[in-house]
């Protein structure tokens, strides 16, 4: 034994065993005359051995209890370590939550300040506010749709500019300074909207919707972007409008829109219903190779310049009732052919008109005018 108590216990056991040996041997010789010295010594040895055995059993039991206590202490120590780890983790989570709340509060304040100064009279201040909103959307993706809504609402504000006046389309006329500056601000808003939308190269693009109904838009370019839904009904588009390669995940509303200049939607994909009824195209319109997976409504649409749908893919109904193509048209779409609705669909025969096989022209009461009708259905190959 390495401790004093162990040594004392061992000495006491040895002393007790010796005493038992002597006492039993002497007692046996005194009280049993027939016992020999060998018998007395053997019996005394057994008594001494019993004492040693009892001490060994006690010692083992003590060692067992010490081991159990040590195990309990180890378990308690592990429990304390586990609790400490959990407390530390909870503390860290609280710190992270506090940091997130601080970041969120800072983002909210930044958003509120930017929206507030959008009403500033100085155009450069408004442009700075728009860039601040776009930066917020890039660093906090949860703000993207909200920022897009704010920019779209800015574009929906009334905008008085002579270039969008259909009654007087003289681009050489004098433009008021405030209109010229506001036009620059609105161009910035349109560019930032496009920059916040996911690219068609993204593996899992987010769904963001745009609502610019009734806006006067300038150089509106969503090419190679992914858009959830688009509401641009009643808009007036100036300069080239580009939807080339754009993917629209839901419905597109272009009812009663006016394209003062060309529109390019080559290779675009319209996943939902496409409303183009009442459209007025005053310049070339190209939907070459465009995919329409839903219904295409072109009722009462009027194209003053050339319009092409060559190699467009149509999976839903195509409604051309009361549509007018006054500057030439190419309707040679790909198969599979959709269900087509034609009624008073007019073309100008003095300019090239390209129709799918089995589509024909019928007489019109006016010179150089004709109606389109289908001799057989579905649409034949181009």
Automatic annotation (TrEMBL):
<protein>
    <submittedName>
        <fullName>Pentapeptide repeat protein</fullName>
    </submittedName>
</protein>
<keyword id="KW-0812">Transmembrane</keyword>
<keyword id="KW-0472">Membrane</keyword>
<keyword id="KW-0175">Coiled coil</keyword>
<keyword id="KW-1133">Transmembrane helix</keyword>
<feature type="transmembrane region" description="Helical">
    <location>
        <begin position="9"/>
        <end position="31"/>
    </location>
</feature>
<feature type="transmembrane region" description="Helical">
    <location>
        <begin position="43"/>
        <end position="60"/>
    </location>
</feature>
<dbReference type="Pfam" id="PF13576">
    <property type="entry name" value="Pentapeptide_3"/>
</dbReference>
<dbReference type="InterPro" id="IPR001646">
    <property type="entry name" value="5peptide_repeat"/>
</dbReference>
<feature type="coiled-coil region">
    <location>
        <begin position="59"/>
        <end position="104"/>
    </location>
</feature>
